[in-house]
Amino acid sequence: MSELEIDAVVFDVLGTLVDEPAGIHAGIGAFAPALDDFEVERLLTLWQTHVEGEQRRIVGGARPYATSDVLDLEAARLVADAVKVDDDVEVDDGAKVDEAHAVAALARAGRRLPPWPDTVAGLARLAERFPLLALSNASRSALLDLNAYAGLRWHQALSAEDARTYKPDPAVYRLAVTVSGRPPERLLMVAAHAWDLRAAQSIGLRTAYVARPVGDPPAPSDTFDLYADDLPDLIEKLDRRRK
Q: What is the pLDDT of residues 176-192, one digit of tens each?
């Protein structure tokens, strides 16, 4: 097995380290507690489809850059329109708030995402070996909140907002290269999304796929440096490949 000479590890956050669908699902459930699980799942899909579609439009130049906060608020508004809420909304604790405040609170569901069971301990172990960087499509302020909520440990967190675009635009991955001061081949990009790793690979980063229930599995044609079942498995394989 060939050696893997790495100076720093760059992590995707949404989906890789935190369960984004679960957090948004909980936010929709709190916003409209009368809905059954099937309806909440339908609205979750509506939310995700909007955000992902708008990010693609921004990357493709069809829409000017807008932060993830703006896209989440648009998605929350779509959910509220689909639920057809009244002027006052009864949230899950029985209190009533006006619709605008309820929609704004729903939009912040993207900042309250639970970590996967192995995330916090896995990051702590890796932080003893490498500088760790987060590289997320979340805005700077959203990334601050979700890192604090999930208890994520970083040496530096980088937002795609600094590149005014979204992954998989190569400009986002170059942030990690610039900030780390390392050549791309000395950085390991870790993600649960094959599309994310392909984009990182295109500018020379080394790549590691970590399986998650909500990820984008590799295609047979993908050739990533590491494939892991979870973070403990990644750490074990990385230790075996390190020089």
A: 999 999 999 999 999 99
